[in-house]
Design brief:
Two copies of one chain form a homodimer. Chain A has 561 residues and is an alpha/beta fold. Chain A is built from 15 helices and 28 strands. Chain A has three domains: 282 residues, 4-Layer Sandwich (Metallo-beta-lactamase, Chain A), CATH 3.60.15; 148 residues, Metallo-hydrolase/oxidoreductase (Rossmann fold), CATH 3.40.50; 96 residues, Ubiquitin-like (UB roll) (Roll).
Chain lengths: 561, 561
C-alpha cells in the first residue's frame, strides 16, 4: 500500500444492485460515500435487509471525516442507523430533503442526539480532512439528489450515481451539465458512475412524459383513480397532485411510507400542494368516486403494502370495485414480477381497469441509458472509470460502451464489493480484496449469528421440513426407557401419514435393539451418545427417503435420564 | 345439470399458466384435452410439480374415451404418468412426435404396457364416444403441434391452444389457416384459445428471424459458440444445426433433456442433421474452438442445468473462458429473471461474450399476439369464446380484444380452474365450480400428505427456523428429571449465541419450577402435559421475540419417563 495513493474501496454496490457504500481513503484519512441497504433475494430466507460490510473501516481505524449521502433512497441511506455506531458515529452530510428522510431512521434507532447532521447544497464546497467535496445537482427519481466532485491529494474524483440527463424535469431542476463540463476541464483522475441501465439503448425519457400519460387516463376515468408508485418518487406524486387538481379531484395518500414521505416533502417545500387538494382517508366518503385519487404504496406487489391489501379487499378505506382505474406507475424490480402480476390479476378479478406495463408510458426510470452514460464520459473524460450500482453484466456492458469511445481495458476497472483500488497520477488498479461479505439483518441482529450456515439450514427446512426423533435413555444402562417419539413439521400431514410415521418408529426401535454398550463402562459414554444419534439419523434419513423420495432434516434428540 | 348440454370443465390452466387440462362431457361420455403440469412458485417450498385436480372425473365416473394431446410441452403432457392411473388409464391420442416425447415418461412410471397410445395426424378424423375430433396443424415452438375441431352433440368446439400464425416457419409447415376458415364456416359454438400473449401488440415474429440473428453471430464469433434454449424447441435446434453447418462447425448437444429430445426428434424425422455435424461431448477436444457449437439446456437459469453449470465451471466438457460467445436464446419465464441474470453475470465474469435480452432478435415466442388473437376470432367467429392458458389479467385483456370486435360480455366466459361451464345452441354459461385445488407432487407423493398446512409450516421454518425445547418428566410425580435441552436449526448460529440459548433455558427452568401437579392424582395427567407444553411454548416464544425480534417455530417436546 503506497502512502501517496488514493485508495477507493467498495463496501457494497459493486457487482450488485443495492447497499451502495464507498470509502475514499488517503493516508490515515477517509470519507464514506453513501451507506445503503440491499433487499434480500428469495433464497435468503427470513433475512430482512443486507448491509455493507464495514469490517475494513473497523480494522483500518482511519479517521472518518464524514459520510456524504447523494440522495434519500434506501439503497443509499438505509444502513446509516445500523452502521454509524460501528464506526464511531461520524457526521452525516446531505441535502435538506435527504437529511429529512434520514432523520426518522436515526430517531427510530435512538441516534438523533448522537449523530451530527450537516446540510449541504448544490454548488457548495465542503472540506473533510484532505478532501474537498463539491455537490452538484442531478436529476433522479427523488428530488434534491446530488453527485460529488471530490478533490483529493491524488486528483479529482467524480462520484456520479443514480442520475439521468433529464432536461425537462418536473421540478424544473435539471442535471447540472455546466458543472459536469467544468469538472471535465479539471481532468478528473477517476469517475465512479451508476450503470444499472447500461443494457438500455438511447436516452431515458424525461419524468415529464408521465404527466401526459396521467392526463389521458384522468380524462376518461369514470370512477376512482388509484395510482401506485414508489413513496420516494416525490416528482411522481407531484404529477398526481397536479393532474388531480386540474380534473377537480382530491388526493389521498395511502400506505405508511407514502404518508410519511408526502408529509416530509411537503414540510420541507419539495411538494407543492394546492389548498384543500390533499385529504385524509377518512374524508373519502364525503366525495363521489370521480372526485377522488388515491396515491399509494405497493407498486412492487409487496404483500403488506396498500395496493396488495386493496387488491385483497383488506384495506380499510379503499375496497376495489368495478369502475376503479388502477395505475401501476412503476416497473417491477427484477425478482418482483410474480408478486406484481398477482396483484394485477386480483385487481382485474375485482372488476377494476388496470393500466400497467411497458406499453403504457406511465413509468420512466431514474437512471441513465446508454447514450447518457456515453455523454457523461464525453463531458468528464476521466482518466479512469469505475461503473457500479449494477450487476456484473451491467458493468461489463458499460465497459464495452467505454471501449467504443476509445477507452482501454486498463482504464475501466470492474471491482466487486470488497475490492480495493489504488489511484495516483497515471496509475489506477485493483490492488486487493478486503472483507465484503453479505451482512444480514434478521430481527434485531446485525450480521453475526445469522450466518450462511443458518441460511442453509433454513433452505433445507424449507424444502422438506424437519423430522425429530426423541428418545430417553437410562444414563446408567444406556437402555431406551422412553420413545422413540417422532415429531415433524413441514414434512407431511401427520393425520394422513400415520403409516409412514409408525413404520419409521418401528425402524428406529429395531435399530436401537441392536445398540450395545460400546464403552464397556456400564454407563452411557459420550461416544455412545454420538453413535446413537448418528445411528438414529442415518436409519431414519435412509428409510424416509426410500419411502417418500424426500429428505427432511432429521434431528435425533437423545435425553439421558 | 341439463342432459343435452355440453359440459366443459377446466381441471387446470384457467387463470393460471400451466397444467392445462380440460374435460368435454356430454351425458355420461367425456374426453380430456391435454394433461400438463405447472411448476411451483417460490413460496411453494419443496414442491416439485403441480398437477391438475382430477377429483371431478373420479367423482363423476363418466366414461373417458380418450386423452387428446395438442403437443409435447410439459404443461400439456407432464401430468399424464401421474394422473392416468387415477382415471382408469384411458387411451392417449397424439401426433408422432408428441407420443415420442410422452413415451419415456410412461416408461419411467412403468406404464408403457398399460396405456394405449394412438397416433393422430393433422387432417385426420377420430371418433371417441359422441365426439368427433379433427386435428389440424398449428405453428408453435415445438414441431408437430395440433389444434382440434371437435364435433359434439351440442355443436362444434374449437380447441386452439399454444399456437401462432407463423406463415414462414422453419419446418415450412405453417398454421392451417384454410382449415380454420373451414371450421369457421361450420359456425362453431365455442372456441377455447390460449391468451398468454394478450398483453403484446401486433404479431409475434416468425421463428425464421432467429436464423438471421444466428447468422450474424456465427459470422463474427472467434471462439466457441454456446446456444442455450428450450430442449423442446426443435426448430431452434434445427436453426443452430443449419447455421453451424453453413459455418463449418460441429454441434454438441449438452444437458440431459437436450440430448434426449435431439435423439427422439432425429429418430422420428423431425430434425434434419447433415452427416457428421452432430458430435459427442467427448469429441469436442478433437476440434478447434471456432469449429464447435454447443446447444444446451439452462436458458431459464436452472441451477442444475448445463448452462448454469458451465457458468460455474462445473460442467465436464465445457468450461467457459474468454473468447466464448454465449447466446441465451429464450426469454425468462416470469419468476426466473433473477436466476437467468445470475447466470449471465457469471458468464461475463468468466470473460465470455453474452448475447441475450430483448434488444437482440435471438428469441421469439411461440404464442399469438393481439392481432393474431383477433384474426383467429375473425376466422372462426365462434358463438362463445373462452380464453385460457394465461393469468387472469391476460384473460381480462383478451376479453377487451373480443369486445372491441363486437362480442358481448355474455359471449366471453372467464372461468377459473375448477369452473364448470355448460353450452347448448344459443346458451353458454359458467354454471358451477368443481374441485380445482393445487395438487402438489413432492417426491413420490401426489397430493394428499403435502397440504397447505405443511407448506405453511415450511414457510414458517424458512423464515426464522425452529427451536425445540426437550424435557423429560417423571410420569408418576410430574417432576422434571432431565432438560430442558434446547436444539435449534435455522434460528441462530449456536456458537455465536450461547447467551440467548442459556438465558432461554433459564427462563424455561423458572417457569417449570412453578409447574404444579394440576390434576391432583399424583401422576402427570394429559391435561398437565398439554398445559406444560403450552407453557413452555409461550414462555420461549415470548422471551425469544423480546430478545431477537424473531419468531422461530417453537416446539416443546415433553417425554414421560
Amino acid at each position: 500500500m503506497s502512502k501517496n495513493r488514493l485508495r477507493v474501496i467498495s463496501l457494497g454496490g459493486a457487482g450488485e444492485v443495492g447497499r451502495n457504500c464507498w470509502v475514499l481513503e488517503y493516508g490515515d484519512d477517509a470519507i464514506v460515500l453513501d451507506m445503503g441497504v440491499m433487499f434480500p433475494e428469495n433464497e435468503m430466507l427470513g433475512v430482512d435487509l443486507i448491509l455493507p460490510d464495514v469490517t475494513y473501516l473497523q480494522e483500518r481505524k482511519v479517521k472518518i471525516h464524514g459520510v456524504f449521502i447523494t440522495h434519500g433512497h434506501e439503497d443509499h441511506i438505509g444502513a446509516l442507523p445500523y452502521l454509524l455506531p460501528l464506526i464511531d458515529l461520524p457526521p452525516v452530510y446531505g441535502t435538506t430533503l435527504t437529511l429529512g428522510l434520514i432523520q426518522p431512521k436515526l430517531k427510530e434507532h435512538k441516534l438523533l442526539d448522537k449523530v451530527e447532521r450537516r446540510t449541504i447544497e448544490s454548488g457548495g464546497k465542503y472540506t473533510a480532512g484532505p478532501f474537498t467535496i463539491e455537490p452538484f445537482h442531478i436529476a433522479h427519481s427523488i428530488p434534491d439528489a446530488v453527485a460529488f466532485g471530490i478533490t483529493t491529494p491524488a486528483g479529482l474524483v467524480v462520484y456520479l450515481t443514480d442520475w439521468k440527463f433529464d432536461h425537462t424535469p418536473v421540478d424544473n431542476w435539471p442535471t447540472d451539465v455546466p458543472k459536469m463540463a467544468e469538472l471535465g476541464r479539471r481532468n478528473p483522475l477517476l469517475m465512479l458512475t451508476d450503470c444499472v441501465r447500461a443494457e438500455s439503448k438511447g436516452v431515458t425519457p424525461s419524468e415529464r412524459v408521465i404527466g401526459e400519460a396521467f392526463d389521458s387516463i384522468f380524462a376518461i376515468a369514470q370512477g376512482r383513480i388509484i395510482v401506485a408508485t414508489f413513496a420516494s418518487n416525490i416528482s411522481r406524486v407531484q404529477q398526481v397532485i397536479d393532474t388531480a387538481d386540474a380534473y377537480g379531484r382530491k388526493v389521498v395518500a395511502a400506505g405508511r411510507s407514502m404518508e410519511n414521505n408526502v408529509r416530509i416533502a411537503q414540510e420541507l417545500g419539495y411538494l407543492r400542494v394546492p389548498e384543500g387538494v390533499l385529504i385524509r382517508p377518512s374524508q373519502m366518503s364525503e366525495y363521489r368516486d370521480d372526485e377522488v385519487v388515491v396515491v399509494c404504496t405497493g407498486s412492487q406487489g409487496e404483500p403488506m403494502a396498500a395496493l396488495a391489501r386493496m387488491a385483497n379487499r383488506d384495506y380499510p378505506h379503499v375496497k376495489i370495485k368495478p369502475g376503479d382505474t388502477v395505475v401501476v406507475s412503476a416497473t417491477p424490480i427484477p425478482g418482483n414480477e410474480t408478486s406484481v402480476h398477482k396483484v394485477i390479476d386480483n385487481l382485474y378479478r375485482l372488476g377494476a381497469e388496470v393500466v400497467y406495463g411497458s406499453e403504457s408510458p406511465i413509468h420512466v426510470s431514474g437512471h441513465a441509458a446508454q447514450e447518457e452514460l456515453k455523454m457523461a464520459l464525453a463531458l468528464l473524460r476521466p482518466q479512469y472509470v469505475v461503473p457500479f450500482h449494477g450487476d456484473y453484466r451491467h458493468m461489463a456492458i458499460y465497459r464495452k460502451l467505454a471501449l467504443s469511445m476509445g477507452y482501454t481495458n486498463d482504464q475501466v476497472l470492474l471491482p466487486e464489493t470488497g475490492s480495493i483500488m489504488e489511484f495516483s497520477q497515471d496509475y489506477g488498479e485493483i490492488t486487493g480484496k478486503g472483507p465484503g461479505g453479505l451482512i444480514y439483518v434478521d430481527g434485531t441482529a446485525i450480521g453475526g449469528d445469522v450466518t450462511n450456515a443458518v441460511l442453509r439450514d433454513r433452505q433445507m427446512l424449507a424444502k422438506d421440513g424437519i423430522l425429530m426423533v426423541v428418545v430417553s435413555v437410562d444414563s446408567m444402562t444406556g437402555k431406551v426407557i422412553a420413545g422413540p417419539d417422532l415429531v415433524s413439521r413441514g414434512f407431511t400431514h401427520l393425520r394422513q401419514s400415520t403409516d409412514i410415521i409408525e413404520s419409521t418408529k418401528q425402524r428406529v426401535r429395531d435399530s436401537l435393539d441392536n445398540f450395545a454398550d460400546y464403552d464397556g463402562q456400564g454407563g452411557v459414554g459420550s461416544t455412545d451418545l454420538t453413535y446413537l444419534q448418528r445411528k438414529i439419523k442415518d436409519t431414519v434419513s435412509e428409510f424416509v427417503y426410500q419411502q417418500t423420495r424426500r429428505r427432511p432434516m432429521v434431528l435425533p434428540v437423545v435425553m439421558e435420564v
